[in-house]
Design a protein that fits this description.
There is one protein chain. 68% of the residues lie in helices and 0% in strands. With 102 residues, the protein is an all-alpha fold. The protein has one domain.
């Protein structure tokens, strides 16, 4: 599954926050996203019984992902499980209850 996710990560560039960061910060953030996104998708598959492709598509289309790809949101500090739960809240209620520390 990770090779599929790596391919799709390349299709969703992180333009929103990368232009304000140094090259080193850009590389670190990109690496963090490449680690955390597959883990979030795996949690979505486990917790909500989705198949990987559907989970990936739904995550990438969500407002949560749009916010996650902004480094300044600091959502990448949250655990994959917490991010999967935020995605589920967005899907079921249309609202994302962001924690104060994010």
């Amino acid at each position: 599954m990770h090779w599929i996710l790596g391919t799709f990560i390349g299709l969703y560039p992180l333009y929103n926050s990368l232009f304000l960061m140094t090259q080193q910060e850009q590389l670190q953030f990109t690496a963090t996203m490449q680690l955390i996104v597959p883990q979030v998708i795996e949690r979505m598959v486990k917790e909500y019984g989705m198949d990987a492709e559907d989970a990936m598509r739904q995550l990438y289309e969500s407002q949560l992902y749009a916010d996650l790809e902004r480094e300044s949101s600091k959502l990448w500090h949250l655990s994959p499980l917490a991010l999967a739960e935020l995605w589920y809240c967005e899907k079921t209620t249309g609202h994302i209850p962001y924690p104060e520390e994010a």
